[in-house]
Amino acid sequence: MVAPLDQAAPHATLEQDQRDAATATENSGRDHGAADIADADPGEAICAPGSAPSVTSRISVQKVCSLVGKFNKFKRDLVEEIGFGGMLGIKMLAKLNLKFSAWLMERVEVESSTLKIDEQRVLQIQDHDVQKVFSLPCGTRSICPDTTEPSAACKEFMRASAYLSKGAHSLKAAEAYLLRDDINADSSKVQIDCFKIAFVIFVVGHLLAPSTKHDYITIDFWAALNDISQIKEFNWCAYVLEHLNRAVGKLKTDIRNRNITVHLVGCHLFLQVFYLDNLDLGPLSKTKDHLPRISLFDYESVKKMIEVITSNVDGDTSFAGASFRRAQDVCYSRVHYESHTHRADVASDLPHHAPGFVGTKHQHNPVTPMLRSSFTETGQEDFSNHLRLKYPSLFDHHSGSAPRQANSNSLQEK
User: What is the domain partition of the chain in residue ranges?
Assistant: First the structure.
């Protein structure tokens, strides 16, 4: 199906994306890389003292897997040609543990680009780590908003997406184009390029840099799509990390402001895979010789790995119940690798914890994990009272204040 030529001019969409990208870049400097706060729902309610925020995320592995599962060999080859073949091997993850994601994101230090579990367990996060997880292009060219004249393929995709849905920023429009039956060996070069453009928009919007908005993506990477033949020359791994850093800043701001709902944006799935892959989990650990790493992580294995590291220390839920693997046993470069020997009673220096994402006050190594089933009988009131004593700054100091709901379900159906 070909879009009529009298559709709205593509420059309107491109200019809007450039304005959105400029706003996001300006806001990214706040709070050490905070995400665009304008993405949050207006009039965000404030979380009552003592209650845990609900956690949501629009990241959807399920949508990516469902889509690529419908591709024939020709379409899969087109994805391989642009260097995004790692997306084809992702396993179906029907649910993500969002509480685990929030716990990890709290421990990302943007300025040093590290994941700091405690003083002894610190992992450097680099572009090449993203490449090993997703097998994305990690070229020498930076991705930034561009004001150059869009290519013929970009213009055609904008026209087609305006006809198929709500424009180029619509993820449904990208999906509709990707599922077209007339994309085959007889298609024109412009149609083939449009398919590749649509695929990048789809996976960025649903997986690599999702926002808080439904079916919407701010395309701040038009420059990298203008010449499809050069798409591998851009550093898509750095792009993913940049948006993840903004997401970390946004999460910390939301928690500090005690928002009633915390929206996780950015690719927090990368943090889950990267962290679990660096842990010594015995037979659950993945062999280091296979790339991309994401293809090794199916729903059941991820669930078991999280269960093993989940512990209850002094009433706090922690995911720190395992040591790091030896440097020679992982495929990542251990720039900041530390010894397995840890000090006991290392305090976590995270001053802005909110109920539901609390840090572990005392961490011992090794930790004998307590699975969730072993402490689910602890009541909400007990947990809230514990937090009231441990984190008094998060509570009102008026006497008689009743404990509110202490936790919320953090498994988001995708």
Answer: 10-413
